[in-house]
Amino acid sequence: MCQRNDTLQQATPDEHSTSSPQMVDIFEASAQPPSPIDIPAARDTGNSLAEQATHLHDDSQFNMQQTRFTEEEHFNNILMWDFNTFSLPMFPPFLSEEPSDGLPEQRKLLSKETHTDSWLNCLSLEQLDPLQAKCSAIQALLQGPGPAVPENVVAMATDRDNLLKALQLFGRNFQNHVPLLHAPTFNLLTAPPVLVLAMFVVGACYADIVRPASYIFPMVMRVLIHIEQQQVILTTLREPHRGAATFLISRIADNGIANVLICQDAASCIFTGTAPTFSLLELDIELPSYERCWNSRSAQTCLQNLQSTPSPNTLSLTLSRLRTPSPLFEERPRFEISAFGMFTLVNVLHCLIWEATHYDLDLILDGCSRDSSASLLLNNLDHQIASDFTGPNIVRLEEQAVLLKSSSTFGRIDSMLNEWLSVWRRRNWRDTESEDLAFTLNPMPFWWLAKLLLLLHCGKDFLSADSEFNMANKAGGSFRSSQTLHGKTAQWLAKLRRKQPTDQIEKLESLETLMVPI
């Protein structure tokens, strides 16, 4: 095994002081100008070496196998989250693995030399190119135990260019919205292969080429099998640190990942109508810190940001505070929470809505009272919602529906939603450079969606039998298929995020279109 040395040491007379005639011939041949066949001419990209070392271009700078991912528009724009260029050196394979007929005779002798002379040709492509090394590592994982993946799929789908493209798609469309990795200290060179494979399969889901599920699903299963075998629950990618750096980054990362898991659990309630896994009211985890802390590039900066921002509260304590309404004319918020923390809270409130709508302990047999004068405001509810599918209109109708429901359970949930909005509007601490740009830092559409779900449940007696909104308020396991519910809920959320008139909303076609920054 050949290893890199930081310094060059001169050999002593006892250490191979004599050279064989073949070695002399080789050194004399290497001193001559190389022939065109020796080293293929590098493709002219029009960029200087400094530019090539600083930027990661989408198209490969070398004559590698053509990528199967198509080019994205404006892909050369500066990404909010990208990989450290020093972690992705692009070293081309200038020399082939086997000597060609055009090479000098002395080069052919290398294959016959003893181990003493093998250091001249011992650097493999994986050693020169860490990205290629990761390709080989994840290909080895895909060949282990688990669902079978066709060899041609493994070879073509996980080549160097596809891996780079998928990792960039992961950074833009997932990491940018759900920051699981600590970007400032991420290093692909030291990243575990199973994590790189997980990033690859997530990024592949955002490609503009629709790939068969039979390609991606076995790769996902391999990731899960490997994690279970290694008994690894959560892994963060970061370079080794000591002392305060390890504690601070680990603490913020653990809190962030725990909140992501809660939000993913809540997503099953919102989009597929399934029960939550966690007992959310008993969780004692801390809510996420501010983005300026998570994005700190050093332990000292992270500590300063943590000390200069409000300390994060626990989830259970914050929920208990939301149960008590704040005074009407109070200008200051009762507590300060980051945008990501507010996103977690509104997702937890969605879980409470799911439990209330499915187990409806305060169910009134006669439903909403038609005798009330306020019921006139909910007549033709389908048309009122569809004609003005905006947050303010949904809130106005929801208040009337909850009032007519006369349910203490839904009344308390609605009060907690209103208290959430009061805290959100009165916040003094904000991540001004990040909010409204990432999916998890823009919780208002999820708040409007929560109001909509309350409206559809409490006002279900005012909906027509064939209404498109009827699918979301059938309790007791009588929902439509989770796939239909997921698609419809995603369309509603997309309309609320885009803040456009209903007739101008484009059809939702992919995850990326749903998570486009406002």
Automatic annotation (TrEMBL):
<dbReference type="GO" id="GO:0000785">
    <property type="term" value="C:chromatin"/>
</dbReference>
<protein>
    <submittedName>
        <fullName>C2h2 transcription factor protein</fullName>
    </submittedName>
</protein>
<keyword id="KW-0862">Zinc</keyword>
<keyword id="KW-0677">Repeat</keyword>
<keyword id="KW-0479">Metal-binding</keyword>
<feature type="region of interest" description="Disordered">
    <location>
        <begin position="1"/>
        <end position="21"/>
    </location>
</feature>
<keyword id="KW-0863">Zinc-finger</keyword>
<dbReference type="GO" id="GO:0008270">
    <property type="term" value="F:zinc ion binding"/>
</dbReference>
<dbReference type="GO" id="GO:0000978">
    <property type="term" value="F:RNA polymerase II cis-regulatory region sequence-specific DNA binding"/>
</dbReference>
<keyword id="KW-0539">Nucleus</keyword>
<dbReference type="InterPro" id="IPR051059">
    <property type="entry name" value="VerF-like"/>
</dbReference>
<dbReference type="GO" id="GO:0000981">
    <property type="term" value="F:DNA-binding transcription factor activity, RNA polymerase II-specific"/>
</dbReference>
<dbReference type="GO" id="GO:0005634">
    <property type="term" value="C:nucleus"/>
</dbReference>
